[in-house]
User: Which sequence fits this backbone?
């Protein structure tokens, strides 16, 4: 019998929101960022900054219609700056 709070529910909850999108697409996000920066450590820095900005937006209650596109847009903007 399934009860609220079991492992399946926790895994499903972890995939929701921008944090879940980040975890699901982290590898492709890093490959995307690598198009805009030359040093591997910059890829890591931009990835982390993009996540933090997305997390802050989500935490502030901003409604994001397309979380993946939002995350990738933030990453591109950070990389280009």
Assistant:
């Amino acid at each position: 019998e399934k009860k609220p709070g079991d492992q399946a529910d926790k895994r499903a909850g972890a995939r929701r929101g921008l944090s879940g999108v980040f975890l699901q697409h982290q590898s492709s996000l890093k490959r995307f960022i690598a198009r805009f920066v030359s040093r591997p450590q910059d890829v890591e820095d931009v990835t982390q900054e993009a996540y933090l900005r997305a997390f802050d937006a989500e935490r502030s209650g901003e409604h994001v219609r397309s979380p993946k596109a939002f995350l990738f847009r933030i990453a591109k903007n950070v990389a280009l700056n």
